[in-house]
Amino acid sequence: MDSSPTALMTPRLKLRRWSDADLAPFAEMNADPVVMEFFPRGLNRAESNALVEGIEAGFEADGFGLWAVEVKATGEFIGFAGLNAVDFEAHSPSRPPPTIARAP
Length: 104
Description:
Layout: E1 7-9, E2 13-16, H1 23-31, H2 45-62, E3 66-71, E4 77-84, E5 99-101
Antiparallel strand pairs: 1-2, 2-3, 3-4, 4-5
Helix pairs in contact: 1-2
């Protein structure tokens, strides 16, 4: 039985699994040069959608991942936050632990 929570709540925010309604605002965010300033490049809609698919697959495989974040009062999608697994062994002091992401 999966005991993973389906949502995490704060007084103002709801961190939840991704939905189809998140795809358009997430793609807009990923195409915004200001938001993506410190990323290698922005993403197009197909790449953004594939990223969400990968995030959800990570939840299924690992039991954790990047949550979609919404404002509880309005239901507005405002970004993402959570833990992101890295694809290398972090067994050396020169290698960082898993990254922690947050909404801008």
